[in-house]
């Protein structure tokens, strides 16, 4: 068994097609099928079912896939770490959109040395990048689901219903999730941690939302709220002074921004430094030395 065989197996498992895997790996289709067959002979296990010219991964194949991805990620990480010469290592950092729009810039201002390479996306996409080894760590507002990831809550946050100050709901108290029935909602895109938390609460309350907008741009959502197109649920940190944030008494809007990294990741000095900056900044917020908006 070689790393190349594992790389071929993972590609076939992800694509479900040997010819497509061959094209993406720039090798011949017989080389792909030969590598898979050799793995099956060596392990004494059937890794794929071949039905009607399609491939379906078996339970044994799923088990191997989990190990193979970890081995390949560790190998890639080893190469990256070994190639870092005496120069300071550059952090590959992920951030969700709410984090990027609220706390990220202040955190990065405190980073000495080379600035991190930052990728901003929703929680689901950041999770995939961490699992594939394309990011060292991330600061996210949503929950991650993969067991391979370590999650450390850092910054306290709350989700509030956001509307114009002249909106009829602005003077209503108390407000409940049921208030949202029939209201046009401006929602974050699928994969957003903010949207996932709201949808779970609405589903548990048996409320079908009237979604008018789906958008990954926080500024566009706030602009649409300002124009009176509808309501949105958003971090209290992002609500501008001309709009109002309202608490829904039966909505568990409290949450955290969390540092996330792969459990097999070697924690480098630059990762430790960024984590310390995050913890120190969060502590300053709690003691009132920093604003939370």
Description:
41% of the residues lie in helices and 21% in strands. By secondary structure, the protein is an alpha/beta fold. It folds into 3 domains: 3-83, Orthogonal Bundle (Arc Repressor Mutant, subunit A); 92-154 and 256-286, D-Maltodextrin-Binding Protein, domain 2, CATH 3.40.190; 156-254, Periplasmic binding protein-like II (D-Maltodextrin-Binding Protein, domain 2, 3-Layer(aba) Sandwich). Strands 3, 4, 5, 6, 9, 10 and 11 form a 7-stranded mixed sheet that branches. The protein starts with a helix and ends in a 7-residue tail after the last helix.
Helix/strand layout:
Blueprint: H1 3-15, H2 18-25, H3 29-43, E1 48-51, E2 54-57, H4 59-83, E3 92-95, H5 97-102, H6 104-109, E4 117-120, H7 123-131, E5 137-140, E6 149-164, E7 184-187, H8 193-204, E8 210-214, H9 218-226, E9 232-235, E10 243-246, E11 254-262, H10 269-286
Parallel strand pairs: 3-4, 3-5, 7-8
Antiparallel strand pairs: 1-2, 5-11, 6-9, 6-10, 6-11
Helix pairs in contact: 1-2, 1-3, 1-4, 2-3
Give keywords.
alpha/beta, D-Maltodextrin-Binding Protein, domain 2, 11 strands, Arc Repressor Mutant, subunit A, 3 domains, 7-stranded mixed sheet, two-stranded antiparallel sheet, about 40% helix, globular, about 290 residues
């Amino acid at each position: 068994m070689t790393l190349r065989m594992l790389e071929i197996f993972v590609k076939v498992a992800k694509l479900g097609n040997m010819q497509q895997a061959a094209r993406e790996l720039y090798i011949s289709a017989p080389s792909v099928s030969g590598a898979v067959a050799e793995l099956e002979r060596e392990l004494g296990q059937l890794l794929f079912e071949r039905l009607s010219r399609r491939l379906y991964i078996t339970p044994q194949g799923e088990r191997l896939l989990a190990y193979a991805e970890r081995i390949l990620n560790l190998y890639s990480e080893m190469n990256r770490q070994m190639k870092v010469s005496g120069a300071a290592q550059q952090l590959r950092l992920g951030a969700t959109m709410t984090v990027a729009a609220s706390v990220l810039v202040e955190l990065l201002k405190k980073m000495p040395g080379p600035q991190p390479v930052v990728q901003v996306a929703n929680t689901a996409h950041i999770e995939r990048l961490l699992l594939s080894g394309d990011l060292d760590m991330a600061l996210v507002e949503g929950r991650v689901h993969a067991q391979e990831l370590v999650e450390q809550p850092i910054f306290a946050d709350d989700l509030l219903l956001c509307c114009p100050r002249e909106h009829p709901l602005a003077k209503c108290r108390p407000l409940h999730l049921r208030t949202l029935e029939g209201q046009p909602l401006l929602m974050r895109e699928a994969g957003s941690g903010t949207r996932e938390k709201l949808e779970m609460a609405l589903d548990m309350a048996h409320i079908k939302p009237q979604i008018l907008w789906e958008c990954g741009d926080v500024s566009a959502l706030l602009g649409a709220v300002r124009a009176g197109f509808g309501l949105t649920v958003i971090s209290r940190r992002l609500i501008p002074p001309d709009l109002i944030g309202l608490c829904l008494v039966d909505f568990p809007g409290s949450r955290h921004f969390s540092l996330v990294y792969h459990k097999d990741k070697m924690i480098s000095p630059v990762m430790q430094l960024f984590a310390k900056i995050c913890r120190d900044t969060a502590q300053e917020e709690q003691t009132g030395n920093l604003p939370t908006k």
